[in-house]
Amino acid sequence: MARVLDSVAGRVKPGRMEDHLAMAVEVTKLMERLGARNPRLAMAVSSGEPAGTFTFSTEHENGEAWGEFGDAINADAEFQAFIMRVSAPEAPSEILQFTSATEIPLRETNPTLGNVISVHVTRPIPGKFEQGLEAATKACELLERAGATNARLWQMGYAGMGSGMQMLSYECADMKTLGRLGDRWSDDPEMAEFAMRSRFGDAVTNTPVFDGLYQVVPI
Fold this sequence. Notes:
Layout: E1 4-12, H1 17-33, E2 37-46, E3 53-60, H2 63-75, H3 77-86, E4 93-103, E5 116-124, H4 129-145, E6 149-156, E7 166-172, H5 175-187, H6 189-199, E8 206-217
Antiparallel strand pairs: 1-3, 1-4, 2-3, 2-8, 4-6, 5-7, 5-8, 6-7
Helix pairs in contact: 5-6
């Protein structure tokens, strides 16, 4: 079944990081109690976004589980009280957007969670959807062979102006592993050829929209 990913994006107010982390610990416990999987806070490392930008994400086994979770949080008094506090003017962070995405199952992945998450959002070119899935499958295989984990493709759904776009994400144990993987894109002949053809050559299937690098915060 296809997993569903919920993400909240926001920005920490200056001087309020400690308070923000405390609230992240609180909401993580709430999410886990209500049935969400892999609740994680990640801070932007290199994304072209303002300093203090963060994402908080959760996963759900399928669409029904996602909907059941939504019903649970709407009916949970403790969670609703938390929403009131995190939305107040004196809250330590500002919530900017909520998005949902559904995984496009491509292959068996290495599900190991990493401490660094690389995210790549693209817009599919009309008429090249199937070729795009083939390219994404190849990219995920190359990434995991080079040391990444949890390489997956997502179809963005309830995402405002981002609806209909796709997001390829993968994870690394640390920045050194990510850097070594980056070297492979130029040092490994197969990876270098694939990157050139799929990004700039005759095998382009998607238009790049956004690339971001995030560091998972241990909470």
